[in-house]
Specification:
Blueprint: H1 16-27, E1 32-35, H2 37-43, E2 52-55, H3 59-65, E3 69-73, E4 78-82, E5 88-93, E6 95-100, E7 105-109, H4 113-118, E8 128-130, E9 135-137, H5 142-148, E10 150-151, H6 157-163, H7 166-178, E11 181-182, H8 184-193, H9 202-215, H10 219-229, H11 231-235, H12 237-240, H13 262-275, H14 282-291, H15 296-321, H16 328-338, H17 343-359, H18 374-404, H19 416-422, H20 429-444, H21 451-467
Parallel strand pairs: 2-5, 10-11
Antiparallel strand pairs: 1-2, 3-4, 4-5, 6-7, 8-9
Helix pairs in contact: 6-8, 7-8, 7-9, 7-10, 9-13, 13-15, 13-17, 14-15, 15-17, 16-18, 16-20, 17-18
Length: 468
């Protein structure tokens, strides 16, 4: 058993709206408790947002007690109660499982609080708090496991994993998020469960990957457990085949800020996901993301970031290692390759993957794992020392160049109509090729982005092509 870690003084202070819901149900004669992740996180001294409630009231009784409700999952006992601000709070009837197939459960109401807690996945999630009485109910010693940093299944681990195969992935996420170890019997049940994980819907697997990127500061803690347990091989074989350092790259991209805009948080999540696919064959990356039921928009973004970061990595590495200043033309070439709107995220992915390689002691050329000899160790240490300061400087300069200078076809002083009308360029593939060639000219020297000069270049190329 790991040494006991002192828990912070818990601030078990549910929002007033949650207390009002609990008080309304209690006054109607229905025992009601706060349960789930908010209780766990409060005991750990972590931010906690969504307070769920468990009650002896049946779904019809919950609906009668409140003016505005939503049947979130009424057949499973869950009713959403809307507070005066329009925020939804889930209220679930005490229940017990009477049948399960590893994906879906048939539940029965009329259970006690202890029976309800007994059907939960892990002891750290089976703690209840009464806002009215200010008391904790912890029949499975979850607080002790929180103090010792342990993920332990409630009751018999094998039975818990058989009831719901998703619990194996949740255990790996909790261990990664909190830096906990997994209790041996629970770990054995997870490993035994791995061959059955493909029975999970692909949407649920996707959600677990996303939650890992959204909640775990160092996703490698969870992902390496996925690999060790066999879950990665069964669920996402492309990632299982990746070098180990790839699974560490997302550690070097900051967590999404849940307090900021949803769009910014989502974009940061996609950047973290893209680090997992660096070096992967583009078609395989797209197929994997499609199989995991990502949206077409997310597939395009993640796959493009991974592909461009893979292409730019050697150039970015060279820029970090260079003794002199990287030229603006080089930075514009990066932006031209991945596009102005993608350059920031592409560089985040490339820099994170390079930092992951360096952190694992690889040589600066990024080939095989470092041999461990003095030369390799010195080269790896020298490269690691360059990353933080130079990376920030290169990143800022690249963004300035991308948004200040011409780097895309649309930035040219001429367009396709101009080339067809005044330079004799025909419609079709030749037109697109000429525009891209002109784009490359002005990327090298923005001062050449003048209408007359570009038209003359296009005429010369068209004439040469005709002569050929």
């Amino acid at each position: 058993m790991a040494g006991r870690r002192p828990l912070p003084n818990p601030v078990l202070d549910p929002p007033p709206e949650v207390r009002d819901i609990a008080r309304t149900l209690e006054e109607a004669g229905h025992e009601t408790w706060c349960v789930g992740g908010a209780v766990r996180d409060a005991l750990l001294g972590l931010p906690h947002l969504d307070w769920d409630l468990a009650t002896a009231a049946t779904p019809p009784q919950v609906k009668r007690a409140f003016r505005r409700t939503i049947p979130v999952g009424e057949q499973f006992g869950t009713i959403g109660v809307l507070d005066r601000h329009g925020r939804l709070h889930e209220v679930t009837t005490f229940r017990r499982d009477v049948q399960t197939d590893g994906r879906h459960a048939v539940v029965e109401f009329g259970a006690s609080l202890d029976e309800d807690l007994a059907r939960r996945d892990f002891t750290i999630n089976a703690i209840a708090y009464s806002p009215g009485r200010g008391t904790l109910h912890d029949p499975f010693n979850g607080r002790d496991d929180l103090a010792h940093g342990v993920v332990r299944a409630v009751g018999t681990a094998r039975e818990r994993m058989t009831e719901d195969r998703l619990r194996a992935l949740r255990a790996l996420r909790f261990a990664g998020r909190f830096g906990f170890r997994i209790e041996p019997a629970t770990w054995a049940a997870i490993v035994e469960s791995a061959p059955h994980l493909p029975r999970l819907s692909r949407e649920r697997v996707k959600q677990e990957l996303e939650k890992t990127m959204e909640q775990v500061a160092q996703p490698s803690r969870a992902l390496t457990l996925w690999r060790s347990a066999g879950a990665l091989r069964m669920l996402v074989p492309l990632l299982d085949a990746q070098p180990l350092w790839v699974l560490h790259a997302a550690d070097f991209v900051a967590l999404p800020d849940a307090s900021g805009s949803a769009g910014r948080a989502r974009r940061r999540t996609l950047v973290r996901l893209a680090t997992l696919f660096v070096g992967g064959e583009h078609g395989g990356v797209v197929r994997t993301l499609r199989d995991l039921r990502f949206s077409n928009r997310d597939i395009d973004w993640i796959a493009a970031l991974a592909a461009h970061a893979t292409s730019l990595r050697p150039h970015v590495r060279g820029a970090l290692e260079a003794q002199g200043t990287v030229g603006d033309a080089e930075l514009r070439r990066w932006a031209a390759e991945c596009g102005r709107t993608r350059v920031a995220d592409t560089l985040r992915v490339a820099l994170a993957s390079l930092a992951a390689e360096a952190s694992m002691g690889r040589g600066p050329e990024g080939g095989e794992e470092a041999s461990g000899g003095p030369a390799d160790a010195a080269a790896g240490a020298a490269f690691r020392a360059t990353i933080p300061g130079r990376a920030r400087a290169v990143y800022r300069r690249a963004l300035r160049a991308a948004y200040r200078d011409p780097v895309e076809v649309t930035d040219l002083a001429v367009d396709g109509e101009d080339l067809m009308r005044e330079a004799g360029v025909g419609r079709g593939p030749a037109l697109g090729a000429t525009l891209r060639r002109l784009r490359d000219v002005v990327v090298e020297d923005p001062s050449r982005n003048e209408r007359a000069l570009l038209l003359q270049l296009a005429r010369d190329w068209a004439m040469q092509a005709g002569e050929g």
